[in-house]
Amino acid sequence: MMEEKIRMPFIASVITILILISFGLCAGGEKYPTGTINNVCLFGPGSAPDMFNRVFSKQLEKHVGVPVVTLNKAGGGGTVGISFLVSSRPDGYTVGLATLENMIVPTITEGKPPFALSDLSIIGQIVTSYNVLVVAADAPWKTFQEFVDYARKNPGVKYGCPGIRSTLYMRMETLSRNANLKLIGVPFDGRAEIEAAVLGKHIPMGLMDLAGARGLEAAGKMRILFIFESPAQAGIDPKTPCLATAMDKSVQEKDIDISQILLVNSKTSDEIKQALNRTLEKISKDPEFHAEAKKMEVMVNPIDGETVMQKKLPSRLEQVRAFYKEMGWLK
Amino acid sequence: MELISGVLFGFKVALQPWNLLYCFIGVCIGTLIGVLPGIGPVGAMSILLPMTFGLSPATAIIMLAGIFYGAMYGGSTTSIMVNIPGEPSSVITCLDGYQMARKGRLGPALGISALGSFIGGTFSLIGLIFLVFILAQVALKFGPPEYFSLICVSMTLLIYLAKGSASKALIMILIGLMLGSVGIDKITGIARFDFGSSYLLDGIDFIPLAMGLFGISEVLMNLEETEERTIFQSKLRNLLPNVEDWKKSIGPILRGTVIGFFSGVLPGGGPVTATFISYTIEKKISSNPGQFGQGAIEGVAGPETANNAATGGSFVPVLALGIPPNVIMAFLLGALILHGVTPGPLLVSQHPQVFWGIIASMYIGNCMLLLLNLPLIGFWVKLLKIPYRILMPMIVLFCIIGSYGINNSLVDILMMTLFGVAGYILRKLDYEPAPLIVAYILGPMLEKSFRQSLVIADGRLSIFVERPISAVTLAISALILISAGISYFRKSKLKSREGGERRPG
B321: which of A31, A264, B130, B162 is 20 to 30 A away, CA to CA? Predict the structure, then answer.
């Protein structure tokens, strides 16, 4: 989360003002939506979440028929953006994209929580990112099973991860513990550093998004040893071991997937929430959106908002809280 | 072959109209701040950094780099004409440049510094292309332990080469390290020194810190200046040096190129050091050292070439390893990271447009600068007449807009103001802010690579000496520390002896 350091340009504030003006012009009792919708992004322009946010804004615009503008509200690992969403008017003209962890973490770590989970309503889950474990092309382990056997016999195999407070690290640590792999994470600043360290053989393996790994595998420099999601869906060698094929049911259930969800202020009226929900359903069936998602190396993985709120959120909250407590990050 | 296609690709990027425009804007701003005494390239870059956020990384860095080497050209003009250095790397040019102007040789003085700068700039770019490529190949061998040792050398050289007192530089480095450690710890994820504030949780932002320490404090310093600036009144003619001048200058120019390039590459070096080394060497090997200080053209040609050659050299460690050798490069590194580009061994393959684009744009920029500084020199000379009462408020305004624009947060303006006042007080007390900002950039890198190494080695400190590159680098930094210690010891002994001799009298 901390790696997202790109800041918002001055121009954005001007755009915000323009949008606020347009807001005033279109207020009225007509059928939602009639005016411009702001889609809050928790990170700065140019970051991976920002790119996805822009793709999604375009889709939303296509399906609701009003302009949708990505609004970058970066800072505090997502806190600033979600606080903005919570304090905006609950009229459906401010929505936002985040992960469950972006929502949960600020409410459990800071002294005085900037918002409560009940301030937010989840419209639905949209996409899940593909996460992979890579090794150098000439690594000693030919298969994932060989690696698992080695790791269990030699505790403390190192892997590079993008920051200790990243959700990706939490995901890998959870897997490592539940599958008894006894790995140790070495935090780096982003994907480029992990790649360099794996290629230079300073660490035996790296944890990253599929987007970077695919190119390096094609160039013959790295091998994808394991993927969390379905390899067939990701479009890599379908025989690549994944969570579903290489792990027990109990390990699979505790996995922390990294998914983007659509959020609104919880005080938003039910009609608007339902309208957004229907739109989200349409978007997730749109072949154009599927093509965009493929380009961005994310998996279209729609889950209804109610299901996320009732099932996924509470269990994830428990998991994240337990993990943070153990790491000493709770205040 | 890869090299040639890379260079060609770079020109393709740099010649895009947009990039060409920003390159031109960069070199113009660079020349401007070089000509105007007061604000230096670091200040200007920090003020303009937030305005590059809407641009692509390549375009932004092309413009920022343009400011850097543009200032090296512009700085000489003020030194030669007014005897005030436009920026620190032109200090030495005052010695002989101004004397040449007084003796009616203003034209050749300006001419040789522009031409020397161009030659130095061109050759250092060639050096950059070759050395970066070699370094980028071996750079993959640099893991966390090697980075740690390399940053150790940078830090020790920083103390060694600091202007003025080493103990003051050390204090500034310590403050820089402390400021750099604010925020979430990268290894354990625990928040440090945030005092319960969510603003500090993200760490102290680079831009308010830099704008305050360099921009605002510079303005405050200038408020004190009441001295009238007198412009040398002499006709500009014969800009091109004659055969005699060329005969005298060609040696200093070639030597200046080599000296400049390598002092740029070395950590702790940079344009300022390069000019001093070049001047000292020229004076030492000259058959007529008495001429120096009286308007010797060698004393202008050498240093002016060296400061430009140093710009190319400075890019080598930044582009290949992601380690800034001096404060200006620390800025550029910060800018690259803000734009989502991680400099390092994979830069060439992952961001070829940034890598080759910068290199090609620097060549184009040097050609533009030659035009700006030879035929158009009269224009810059006029600029020396802008009154400070107009210039300085404008700089403050830019700083405020710039720091507000990062997060649209008033806290950033407050931070910038605080650092501005702090920077002013520190300068008044002869504490240079440069070591602070370099330590602020290097400190977190040092800590991170140190602790990464320990995680990789399961806590064994011996990892730093078991790996050959790391061991050699650490040995070098130990040698530097020892030699600095010895010279300090000698000096203090000398002082106490002098004091002892004086006492009886």
Answer: B162
